[in-house]
From TrEMBL:
One GO location term (cellular component): plasma membrane
Membrane topology: Multi-pass membrane protein
Catalytically driven reaction(s): L-lysyl-tRNA(Lys) + a 1,2-diacyl-sn-glycero-3-phospho-(1'-sn-glycerol) = a 1,2-diacyl-sn-glycero-3-phospho-1'-(3'-O-L-lysyl)-sn-glycerol + tRNA(Lys)
UniProt protein name: Phosphatidylglycerol lysyltransferase
GN (gene name): mprF
Major site of localization recorded for this protein: membrane
Pfam families xref list: LPG_synthase_TM (PF03706)
Compartments in which it is found: Cell membrane
Any Gene Ontology biological process: response to antibiotic
Length: 340
């Protein structure tokens, strides 16, 4: 990791600690300690396992999209470290923008062609965004009354998050099905946006955008012919997301909150994903904590219990991935062993 990345990591850890201190400063410390002592650690361990399995299934998605008959056998660590690296760089960059480039570097360290790797990562991103959107629509259809009851005050934030997902997916689908039109549109939109830059730098950005579009389009042609592979990746992505959604449910069980409906909890987690996607702060920091408190306050009447639940959920789904990501960055795969 570069010094800039290490600095960003420390800033996010400090910001996270500051948010929890602010939320807990008026809480009775003794009450917080007593609730912690009463935790059901079995369910807490299950929450950690669920998150680890979510990373494992994401690695499986990547392997499914990447693997070809003529390829060598990829080692499990080669694939598993990529979601961990993504988790780290998503957590320390605005709008999770660093995750894709970091994954690309990780795959290139495994001697995978950069153009092929970037295209597969883009396809993986499209599938992920598509499944998040489908989960949201299904949640609205299945549990509309619950959504209206719990999310009235956050409706505008949820709507913004939905718009971002729809625009992102629409743009990538346009590349797949309206390639020439999309290339021209990007050029038309970017040129006035970048008019204040020097000609040389502006040209580099435009060329980079063209290369990215070309790379994604070429890979999409291959994957259009491999529908079984895409369908398998989509099903696995749904499994990956649900393992992530289940974490908060297991945290609530660890806090001995049993009067909860699994469907309601999953719906709330889906909405939190939508809300945090609109916050430019790395990891949706601030937005994630506020939305969690707003949505789960009805399930946990104790203020101390709510703060502890928020901390445990945030640690497992955010900070835990950062620490694992540092291991993923530092421990590179043994390619000689994999080839053997």
């Amino acid at each position: 990791m570069s010094r800039k990345n290490i600095f960003a990591l420390l800033v996010m850890l400090g910001l996270g600690a500051g948010i929890f201190w602010w939320e807990a400063k008026d809480i009775n410390f003794e009450s917080l300690v007593n609730i912690f002592k009463g935790l059901n650690f079995f369910w807490l361990v299950i929450a950690f396992v669920s998150m680890l399995l979510s990373y494992a299934v994401e690695a499986w998605v990547l392997h499914t999209l990447l693997k070809k008959k003529e390829d060598r056998k990829f080692g499990w660590w080669e694939m598993y470290r990529i979601p961990l690296i993504q988790a780290l760089f998503n957590a320390i960059t605005p709008f999770s923008s660093g995750g894709q480039p970091a994954q690309l570097v990780g795959l290139m360290q495994s001697k995978i062609d950069g153009g092929r790797a970037s295209s597969v990562l883009l396809m993986k991103f499209v599938i992920y965004q598509g499944m998040v959107l489908i989960n949201f629509v299904v949640a609205m259809l299945v549990s509309f009354q619950s959504v209206a009851r719990h999310f009235g005050g956050l409706a505008l934030l949820i709507l913004f998050g939905l718009v971002i997902h729809v625009v992102t997916i629409s743009f990538l689908l346009m590349i797949m099905y309206y390639y020439n039109f999309t290339k021209r549109m990007v050029q038309v939109v970017l040129k006035p946006v970048l008019f204040f830059l020097k000609d040389e730098k502006r040209d580099k950005i435009l060329e980079s955008a063209d290369r990215s579009i070309d790379s994604f389009y070429n890979e999409s042609l291959v994957l259009k012919k491999e529908r079984k592979k895409v369908i398998k990746a989509a099903v696995l992505t749904v499994l990956q997301l649900f393992l992530y959604y289940f974490v908060v449910y297991f945290v609530l069980l660890a806090l001995n909150v049993h009067h909860i409906n699994l469907l309601d909890v999953i719906v709330m987690q889906i909405m939190i994903v939508m809300i945090t996607s609109i916050f430019p702060v790395p990891g949706g920091t601030g937005g994630a904590e506020v939305s969690f408190k707003a949505l789960f306050a009805g399930f946990i009447p104790s203020a101390s219990g709510l703060i502890l639940a928020m901390f445990l959920w945030r640690f497992i789904t955010y900070f835990f991935g950062m620490f694992l990501g540092m291991i993923g960055v530092s421990k590179k795969p043994n390619l000689n062993k994999n080839k053997a």
